[in-house]
Design brief:
alpha/beta, 5-stranded parallel β-sheet
């Protein structure tokens, strides 16, 4: 009888040992639901879940290199998935950190390239503005066209009066204006007549700015060695009509407008065209 009880006891002990050896033990425990996405083990396995080969325990030992939930790759693994699209897993923490750095580099590179390119394109616009400004230069008046006189009074220098907006100056007789300086008044046209022997010999005659100026020479050496200065913008003319050597040595300095000499004798002045738009020597 005692032998029968001993046999039954040994049989029961063997069954108990067999159940423990084939059960879901800590050595080869089931894979965790969070760690590898496989079928979950019973939550009661927490105490030994943190072993290197698996387990789903929520204990502090769950953060081992190959699994676990408590401090394992669940949080870091999520970051890795967001950047690289990879599966969450045991080494997800390191992957997540690497993915974050890659993302930052992409943003910096893209921003710098866009800003630099945009700046270079903007600079090109200033060149067009400078070219347009240069094109507006040079609006001169029509050659040979003088403005309407503005003077309202007839100055004293106009010894023959003023007529048709002309100041009329006359040097009449022998050496009447020899070595004289004759300045036409501003604001009106001017006509100077040198009539007589050496009437304006070595005289200097200056025309008004912007207005018509005329010089008439008559008589022997009437305008000999005289100087006739045209204005920058007014038309200018000199007539050598009669008399021996009437315009010998007469020098005419043209301005920018029409400038001409009219000669009815063989005595001709020297005409310097300068920038005249229409220069016509005798």
């Amino acid at each position: 009888m005692r032998g029968a009880f001993l046999f039954v006891g040994l049989f029961a002990l063997a069954c108990t040992v067999d159940r423990q050896g084939a059960g879901t033990g800590p050595g080869v425990g089931g894979t965790g639901a969070t760690s590898s996405g496989g079928p979950g083990a019973v939550a009661g396995d927490g105490g030994n879940g943190g072993w290197p080969n698996g387990g789903t325990g929520a204990s502090a030992s769950g953060g081992w290199p190959n699994g676990g939930v408590s401090s394992g790759g669940a949080a870091a693994g999520g970051s890795a998935g967001a950047v690289n699209g990879g599966a969450a897993g045991s080494s997800g923490g390191n992957a997540g950190a690497g993915g974050g750095a890659a993302g930052s580099a992409g943003t910096t590179s893209g921003g710098a390239a866009g800003t630099t390119s945009g700046g270079a394109a903007g600079m090109a616009g200033s060149a067009g503005t400078t070219g347009g400004t240069g094109g507006s230069a040079g609006s001169g008046g029509q050659c040979g066209a003088d403005p309407t006189p503005t003077a309202t009074a007839c100055p004293a220098v106009c010894n023959r009066g003023c007529n048709a907006d002309f100041c009329r100056i006359r040097c009449d007789g022998y050496r009447s204006c020899r070595n004289a300086t004759i300045n036409c008044p501003p604001g009106m046209h001017c006509a100077v007549t040198c009539s007589g022997q050496e009437a304006c010999d070595k005289a200097e005659i200056t025309c008004p700015a912007d207005y018509t100026c005329q010089l008439v020479c008559e008589g022997e050496n009437g305008c000999h060695d005289a100087k006739y200065k045209c204005s920058a913008e007014g038309t200018c003319a000199a007539g050598c009509l009669s008399g021996t050597n009437v315009c010998n040595g007469l020098g005419i300095e043209c301005g920018g407008d029409r400038c001409e000499g009219v000669c009815q004798t063989s005595s001709k002045p020297t005409l310097t065209c300068n920038s005249s738009c229409d220069c016509k020597p005798c």
